[in-house]
Amino acid sequence: MYKSRANCTNRFNSLRVVMRLISRFIVHDLTILTQKKDYYCDYGSKNRTEDTKKNVRLTNYPYFCTSLMLMSMNKTILLTGGSAGIGKATALCLMKNGYTVYALSRSGCENQEDTASGGKLVSIQADVTQPDTLQKAVAQIVVEQGGIYGVICNAGNGIAGAVEDTSLTELEYQLATNYFGVVNTVQACLPQLRQQGWGKIITVSSMAAIAPIPYQTFYSSVKAGILAFTEALSLELKPFGIQCACVLPGDVKTNFTHARKYTEASKSEHSVYTEPMLKAVQTMEKDEQNGMSPDAIAHSLLRLLKKKRMPMRTIPGFGYKVLSFIIDCVPASLKVWVIGKLY
């Protein structure tokens, strides 16, 4: 009996010590938050340069402090391509879940507010191929909200045609929005995210990044480039507390199918690629119109934003997850042979 009472006393004392340490951490971190002065740390790394140490804020380091900042800040999202398709579905989904979404697009969209959750959708006309419009958008968001919780790079377009039938101008059109648009958006947001000491960047790639499609060669190449860009970027931004993730949707039923453009040479009767190209694109369009709802992709993005640690790759849909696993397991030559049979 005395032994059990002693054990209880020891456990109680241990618990009291732990609670006292936790309270000290909380008080210390609250002190950091309430003081105007900036604090920095070097994460215990001996190899980090002095300049890098100065740019890393201490708010990345204590877990309680980071959590308090995330909870206290309005969850503001910068979303490109927010006027249609996946972007529009994502903007509405996040708004209904209490986020303030700044939807950037060239055409703009209607401002909305969800009274139940307190979420907002704010439209900003901006072009991802024009860095100055993105910088103005970021400045507006910071003034109105005080910071940026997450960035979703979603803007994109599609072009179909054989490599030989694609001009340099048409290739530049494909790259301008799909690749350089992502780069421009990230570069516009990074100074603010670094100053905050944390943030989330999500890029929207495609299953075509790991399963390239014929007659959409440049689209597949760009999406693969976005995946590699995101993974490499995550290594650069890790010391600053900024997380990166890439979403790879499969076939999605949106207006993207009808907005797809064809190269001029591919329309010619003299092109040797026209017939097989049209056949392949018809198969793609059929798959897209029978594909997932954009709402499914929107909820995948929502789940990513809610995660404390985002996974590097997210593939919406069980079937596409299985396909991705198979692609990783089989030889590249077998993968390409199967894709050739499908298209």
How would you characterize this protein structure?
With 343 residues, this protein is an alpha/beta fold. The protein has a single domain (74-342), classed as Rossmann fold. 53% of the residues lie in helices and 12% in strands. The chain contains 13 helices and ten strands. The strands form two sheets. The chain has an eight-stranded mixed β-sheet with strand order 3-4-2-1-5-7-8-10, with helices on both faces. A two-stranded parallel ribbon has the order 6-9. Helix 1 crosses helix 3 (63-72) and helix 6 packs parallel to helix 8 (217-237). The longest helix is centred in the N-terminal third of the chain and has 33 residues, at 2-34. It is globular and about 55 Å long.
Features:
single chain; 343 residues; alpha/beta; Rossmann fold; eight-stranded mixed β-sheet; two-stranded parallel sheet; 13 helices; 12% strand; globular
The CATH homologous superfamily corresponds to NAD(P)-binding Rossmann-like Domain
Please tell me what the overall shape is.
globular
Taking pLDDT < 50 over at least 5 consecutive residues as the criterion, the unreliable ranges are: 20-72
Distance between the termini: 78 Å
CATH class: Alpha Beta
Strand order of the largest sheet: 3-4-2-1-5-7-8-10
Radius of gyration: 24 Å
Question: What is the name of the CATH topology?
Answer: Rossmann fold
H/E element order: HHHEHEEEHEEHHEHEHEHHEHH
Please give the number of β-strands: 10
Let me know the average pLDDT.
83
